[in-house]
Amino acid sequence: MRVRDFGYLAVFLTAALPLLAWALIHRDLAPDLAAWLPLAVVYGVVPLLDLLLGEDPRNPIDDAQAQRLDAQRWFRVLTWLCVPVWLALLAFCMRQATTLPLHPLGQLGWLLSTGTIGGVLAINVAHELIHKAGRLEPVLGGIALTSVGYFGFKIEHLRGHHVHVGTPEDVSSARLGESVYPFVLRALLRNPRAAWRLEAERLQRRGQGLFTWHNEMLRWSALWLSMLTASALWAGLAGALFFVAQGLIAAATLEVINYVEHYGLRRARDAQGRYERVTHLHSWNASQRLTNWLLFQLQRHSDHHAHARRRYQVLRHHADSPQLPTGYAGMFVLALVPPLWRRLMDERVRHFNARNDLGAQA
Q1: What is the distance between the alpha carbons of residues 188 and 149, in angstroms, rounded to a whole number?
Q2: With left for phi above 0 and alpha for psi between -120 and 50, is residue 165 left, alpha or beta?
Q3: How far is Cα 301 from Cα 293, in angstroms, rounded to an integer?
Q4: pLDDT at 253 exceeding the cut of 70
Q5: 117: which DSSP letter?
Q6: pLDDT of 1 above 70
Q7: 147 CB contacts (<8 Å, ≥6 apart)?
Q8: What is the Cα–Cα distance from 148 to 27, expressed in whole angstroms?
Q9: Left if phi > 0, otherwise alpha if psi is -120 to 50, otherwise beta: which for 98?
Q10: What is the mean pLDDT of residues 228-234?
Q11: Dihedral angle computed from the Cα positions of residues 121, 14, 297 and 347, in that order, rounded to the nearest 10 degrees
């Protein structure tokens, strides 16, 4: 195993951030200030470190090396471990939210920090797991998604987004000129509905009833209600509200990243109106070293859409994919400022789409 592969352990540093904030509070740092520490690190320190540490565009040198990397259990275990680590951290953050002497601004900071880390440890890890074959990894991914209340992502992402990406039919593909705020709101409202519809269609094809245990959405709903009830019993009404709110923030964080990953890109249509096959040209790519460690190479999203079952450690950097100017942490912050985002990205989109259209016609 390569030395750089140990860099994926960096994902657990995000889990340590609330613990660090808690420790600093007990070292007499103002609680309302400490509550914002995880958020400041993720969206302040990490983008700066991305600039300092630069990119790592290296790929497996050949198919033999890729197969060896794919077979190494170390990489799978790391993603499996993230699920119990996140669940324990969520319980810790919930307890602190209901016991620390936080004023409203500090409570907001603690909530946003928890939801952001949920986006990394729950949703991002689940994204890796739900794409895999077998029973264990998809179930672990479903549990992680349920812990943030966005379990419909497991269905809609696989059966909806990956089919329709880069087309008007895909809610998770942002249009050129679209602001992140209406995009996220639309995605949060429409993607769960799409998941219920897709699951109903699957059950109908199989001749199975909608209101049965065969309905995956019903099973995850029951688990979410169980988690909500446990939160209420353990930490009262405040704990239950915290559980719901952190999930909404984690889901919104995911949709901002979806906005970044596909902004303005489109698939060409042939004379019969059929969309071209999804390739590595239909998602934005980034190879910043640090954020790829933190996110299990989610930023190599171009290759992921071309090869959805490919494990994170063997995802490829494609130089001819559309390239983001920096990593996801920095792009997330930029997306929240629409005029700055459009100034940075719109011309890149137009240039790449024009080049891609010419290539499709050739």
Answers
A1: 11
A2: beta
A3: 14
A4: yes
A5: H
A6: no
A7: 86, 87, 90, 118, 122, 227, 247
A8: 31
A9: alpha
A10: 98
A11: 100
Residue 272 has pLDDT above 90, yes or no: no
How far apart CA 332 and CA 43 sit, in angstroms, is: 8
Query: CA 125, CA 303: separation in Å to the nearest integer?
Result: 17
Which stretch of DSSP H or E encloses residue 286? none
How do residues 128-177 score in pLDDT, each as one tens digit? 999 999 999 999 999 999 999 999 999 999 999 999 999 999 999 999 99
Q: Across residues 258-270, what is the average pLDDT?
A: 94
Alpha carbon 181 to its chain centroid, in Å, reads 17
Of 181, 174, 171, the residue nearest 336 (C-alpha):
181
Is 60 exceeded by the pLDDT of residue 360?
Answer: no
**Domain map (residue ranges) of the chain:** 3-361
- How many Cβ atoms sit within 10 Å of the Cβ of residue 248? 15
Tell me the percentage of the chain whose pLDDT exceeds 90: 91
For residue 355, the one-letter residue type is R
Distance CA 98, CA 122 (A): 22
- Report how far apart the first and last C-alpha atoms of the chain are (Å, whole number): 42
Do 122 and 250 contact (CB within 8 A), yes or no?
Answer: yes
Cβ-in-10-Å burial (0-12, 13-18, 19+) of 135 comes to exposed
In which residue are the tokens 């016609």 written?
361
Whether 342 shows a pLDDT value over 90: the answer reads yes
Helix (H, G, I), strand (E, B) or coil at 310: coil
Cβ within 8 Å of residue 250, ≥6 positions away: 115, 116, 118, 119, 122, 123, 148, 150
**pLDDT for residue 50:** 96
Query: CA-CA-CA-CA torsion for 46, 51, 52, 57, nearest 10 degrees?
Result: 100
Structural tokens at position 55? 């990119």
Can you tell me the distance from the alpha carbon of 62 to that of 77, in angstroms, rounded to the nearest whole number? 24
Whole-prediction pTM value? 0.95
pLDDT value for 362: 46
* Average pLDDT value for residue range 245-274: 94
φ/ψ (deg, to 5) at 170: -95, 115
